[in-house]
Amino acid sequence: MKLLEDKILREGKVLAGDILKVDGFLNHRLDTALITALGKDIAKQFANSGASLILTVESSGIAIAFAAGQAMGLPVLVAKKSKTLNISDGVYTAPVFSYTHKTENTVLVSNEYLSAADKVLIVDDFLASGNAAMGLLSLVEQAGAKAVGFVAAIEKAHQGGRALIEAKGVPVYSLACIKEMRAGEIIFD
Amino acid sequence: MKLLEDKILREGKVLAGDILKVDGFLNHRLDTALITALGKDIAKQFANSGASLILTVESSGIAIAFAAGQAMGLPVLVAKKSKTLNISDGVYTAPVFSYTHKTENTVLVSNEYLSAADKVLIVDDFLASGNAAMGLLSLVEQAGAKAVGFVAAIEKAHQGGRALIEAKGVPVYSLACIKEMRAGEIIFD
Prior knowledge:
Two copies of one chain form a homodimer.
Chain A: H1 2-11, E1 13-15, E2 19-21, E3 29-30, H2 32-45, E4 53-57, H3 62-72, E5 76-82, E6 91-98, E7 103-110, E8 119-127, H4 131-142, E9 146-156, H5 161-166, E10 172-182, E11 185-188
Parallel strand pairs in A: 4-5, 4-8, 8-9, 9-10
Antiparallel strand pairs in A: 1-2, 5-7, 6-7, 10-11
């Protein structure tokens, strides 16, 4: 999606450790017009997916998932992150390693809001190594629901997450797919 | 706002410890149509406020703040929560005690995105004792910016947060204002 690619080229910053900082429009400060447009693009892409629910994870996936939910007329389920492996009744949980923070978290959702009847479109801000995606897919599988797609606003293709998701038969869509990046240079796929 | 009050009466659950659970539409599972309507109501209320920026705090304020930002054509700045008092260059920080979790967090924003020129509308999901509000107002004050209003989707009036905010000369608006609540009964103001 050219709108997002142009924004990344203009305002994204490549930091040490293969980190792309998009704090100015996607994470910390939210460009509401841009994110609304991302939501509409996601809706167009998955118009025939039969999705019944959007699933995301707090906190930087929320705005994008919300914009997609608005455009598709669907509710959004926000997986919570917890430092502890919070195994209690009534929740599905999965471990997720955070690439940015180098910590392991647990993601969890209430089983009240995710059922075997759901067709789930997962939406997140980044797809890199696929750790968060695998955790969210595990929640969907535990509920006996079906994942109809995985969407990332930004994919870092060289980190291999896409193959893990596709191996589960789940289609992957990224709005900006980065092939290579280094300070001062970002090359899209 | 009748739409939200009706939803709270139908689906909200009053838990021990004076906690109102609205997980099914406002926090965990997001009712995108309802939250979009909340955003429009906030925009109408603050149409003449001169706001240049919406400020919220992760993660349950994000969707409501985003909907308000969309309706007002404004960006949203999402204050991050940290367990540690993260005093580093380039950020404004303030301590916040969480009523629900009984823990103290630090909220922080980058000084890159909040300046003395900003007129800030603060938007959060709840106003209770006013702890989160005071932390966010402190960030605005540190930047030398002006707070033009504080909005909560749901106010628990009996916990006194409103008076603290109004004492700073900042107008408070809540979309649903709860006067009293106990199991099975919620009374609006």
